[in-house]
Amino acid sequence: MVEFSLDLNEEQRDLRDWVHGFATEVVRPAAAEWAAREQTPISGTQIR
Questions:
Q1: Residue 41 in contact with residue 34, Cβ under 8 Å?
Q2: Rounded distance, CA 14 to CA 17, Å?
């Protein structure tokens, strides 16, 4: 029988932490300006 777990593995935790850091350091500081301009920076959200 296969065990089911919602726990993240190490790679998933690393990705979660990286995304959180990006949001904190890049997105959050610029969010107020984007909201004031009612604009979303598409170039900043595209995956290359």
A1: yes
A2: 5
Closest Cα partner for 30 from 19, 20, 21, 41?
A: 41
Tell me if the pTM is above 0.70.
no
Q: In the numeric block, which tokens belong to residue 39?
A: 């604009």
The whole-angstrom separation of Cα 21 and Cα 48 is 19
**Residue 16 · residue 7 · CB < 8 Å:** no
3-state DSSP assignment of residue 1: coil
Give the model confidence (pLDDT) of 9-47 as tens digits: 999 999 999 999 999 998 888 888 888 888 777 665 555
